[in-house]
Predict the structure.
Amino acid sequence: FAAMAGSGPAYIYQVIEALADGAVMMGLPRDLANEHAAAMVEGAATMVLEGAKEGKHSAKLKDEVCSPGGSTIRGVQKLEEGGVRAAFMSAIQAAANRNEELGKK
């Protein structure tokens, strides 16, 4: 738990930064890109927490946003090609392993 709760915010900051960078790349000013990326992450987190109360998994929320043949599923495909889920899982594992190493000192 500590590896996710303690290190996770840094990972999400990188996600926000990457989302904002993508928006800037597409022409949005940096201040608006940062604001909208952070607000989107906040909104998505709220949806996950509210959905959990109803027994709705985050994968279901993702599916509800992905229109067949649409732009979102194309972006999801690129994230999968880049190994985004595996990278997050590996980051949590690496942090947990390091926490264990530090605890033995």
Q: What stands out?
A: The chain has a mean pLDDT of 97.
